[in-house]
Amino acid sequence: MSSKSLVYSMYAWRLLSRGRHMCNPFRNWQATTTSFTQIKRSYTERANYIHVENDEQLKGVSLLKFDNKPVNGLSKDFLIELDMALEKLENNPTCRGVILTSAFPKIFSAGLDIFEMYQKSPDYTNAFWRSLQNMWLRLYGSRLITIAAINGHSPAGGALMAMSCDYRIMASGPYTIGLNETLLGIVAPFWFMDVMTNTIGHRKTEISLQLGKLYSSDEALKIGLVDMLAEENEVLDVAKVHMKQWLKIPDYAREISKQMMRKKTIDKLRSRQEEDIAYFTKFIQKDSIQLSLGKYLESLKKK
């Protein structure tokens, strides 16, 4: 589980810092030219990371737009704000559905923020990991209709958020999605595995996790990792069309059905939450891991 942290962070930064055609799905994205100092500043400055908008056409539906430059990294503040935004909408009796998307073109979320794992105290690390758990428990178990409008790349933690929604619409084109942990020699935490298994089945998950597979949008559609594709500039509009179909279902029946399907997976993490946090913190605090993170950050300064 702690393993994942490395994946999210280091993979995201590799995407930003390398220019190889096959290894870098962000190669055409403007953030590849962002300096290390600019990237670090954008992560450390306080901001509103989640924009909540009421949809003018769909009554009872809100849009949640991720706005954490440059790659919607999952920092502790971002995760807490997302959790609070979802809680507020769930407590609003007039709200029935939410569409999650990114405020930036070509990127949904690149996963965990590397700066949240480097030279942090155990208490901070515990809080960071708990914020990720809490956000996921909120999203995966939400009474609301949740649709992911995936308008760009969605590796690692981005894939987790997308898979945790009820329905996923992804931009067609040169974008990828998946849990790629083993490419960095680490293992995804059990609850990431469970969510993927629930989404695409045991055998496909087994292959995906062992190979650290990042699927193209066409491949993701073929295996059921996403439910449909849309043109990049139409992803949000298509999500709204499908939201209309979901809104036709009586809430009570839909919510109970969802709870019955997801309860086992949610209960599994809740029963092991403290163990999961302790394991992650012990792993990420290792001198060897901190040394690797430090060297990696140093290497970015030379890019």
Notes on the structure:
The protein has 303 residues and is of the alpha/beta class. 51% of the residues lie in helices and 14% in strands. It has twelve helices and ten strands. The chain has helices spanning 2-17, 36-44, 76-90, 122-140, 157-163, 190-200, 202-211, 217-223, 235-247, 251-271, 273-284, 287-301, and strands spanning 50-54, 61-66, 97-102, 106-107, 145-150, 152-155, 167-171, 176-178, 215-216, 228-230. It starts with a helix and ends with a helix. Residues 1-46 have low confidence and may be disordered.
In short:
The chain is of the alpha/beta class. The protein is 51% helix and 14% strand. The two termini are 29 Å apart.
